[in-house]
Design goal:
324 residues; mainly alpha; 74% helix
Length: 324
């Protein structure tokens, strides 16, 4: 089948948008720099922003696949905690490769299990995932307090094994994975089927799309991304603590805001490209707030919640139906 050609008007519109975006971003950066007395554009501060945005970008990419097929999974924060535990414990015991593979295996396995639950039970995904989040949180707490495992869980990830989560190596990982994710989302049958299900599941079935199998493919792809997120998060911070009372949901809020903003921009920019751009912008804003001494834990989180609401309202304009 011949690929549709991009109209000259569409290409011109994208170029105009890109030019306007760059100008606005440059002006905002200069304003931010002036507000912080020259600290914002210092290379050390830019490195901090880049380092902070890397692992949430992977979770946001996973959410893009999730949203593209019309589903929501609230358990990913708890999955990241368990996969980070696996990375730290196995990495300290058997080395970098073992930690990386185990974290990715746990993240992939749990997210795949989630999608199997969604597909097999037909329970609305947001309801099932909240229940699964509580189960995963309880298991993480058990591992953290159990006499047989708490010492291994409490031990920080060895500094010699953490380099892939540190700048600039984390940026290299991001660029390599970006190429793979872009290809899967835009150039494969799986990517097409995912977007078809999100557009209209009933029509997708009539076109011959195997919805259940595609959802399991989404589970594998999202699981791999969550596994990489967990490994990078553990490599960046060196230590992960268990959450309870659904506090793990907080871990998905910033990636959620990034994914929602990227969804708004995808009419002008491919969503896989939009995610790291939006991640950088999001963390630049929070970095500015930190430099201006706006307290985290209160006002910054309140602003994050407002961002999510605003992006969600804008993104849902003209959308019919409900989120699964």
């Amino acid at each position: 089948m011949a690929k549709p050609k991009v109209s000259s008007n569409g290409a011109r519109s994208q170029l105009i948008f890109a030019g306007a975006f760059i100008v606005i971003a440059a002006v905002c950066a200069l304003i931010f720099n002036a507000l912080t007395e020259g600290h914002f554009l210092q290379w050390m501060n830019i490195k901090i922003i880049l380092g902070n945005m890397i692992y949430p970008t992977f979770m946001a990419w996973g959410m893009c696949f999730l949203f593209a097929c019309g589903y929501t999974d609230m358990s990913w924060g708890a999955v990241v905690v368990l996969a980070s535990f696996a990375t730290g414990v196995l990495g300290n015991m058997y080395g970098l490769a073992a930690g990386m593979l185990c974290g990715i295996f746990v993240g992939t396995g749990l997210v795949f299990f989630n999608f199997w639950i969604f597909s097999a039970t037909k329970i609305p995904a947001w309801i099932a995932s909240l229940s699964l989040a509580m189960v995963y949180e309880a298991f993480a707490i058990f591992l953290q307090v159990n006499n047989a495992t708490k010492a291994a869980i409490a031990k920080p990830f060895d500094k010699s094994l953490r380099f892939l989560g540190q700048f600039p190596y984390s940026l290299i990982v991001l660029l390599v994975c970006f190429a793979v994710i872009y290809f899967i989302y835009n150039r494969t049958t799986v990517g097409f089927n995912i977007r078809a299900i999100g557009g209209n599941e009933r029509v997708a079935r009539s076109l011959g799309v195997n919805v259940d199998r595609t959802l399991l493919h989404v589970g594998i792809i999202c699981g791999l991304l969550i596994g990489v997120t967990s490994f990078l998060q553990e490599s960046y911070s060196g230590y992960t603590t268990a959450k309870n009372s659904l506090a793990s949901i907080f871990l998905i809020l910033q990636p959620l805001a990034i994914a929602l903003l990227s969804d708004i921009l995808q009419k002008k920019v491919n969503i896989v490209i939009a995610v790291p751009i939006c991640a950088f912008l999001m963390y630049a804003v929070f970095n500015l707030l930190t430099l201006l001494h706006v307290p985290s834990g209160t006002l910054q989180e309140a602003m994050l919640a407002l961002f999510i609401i605003a992006f969600g309202i804008i993104g849902q304009r003209g959308v019919q139906g409900v989120v699964k």
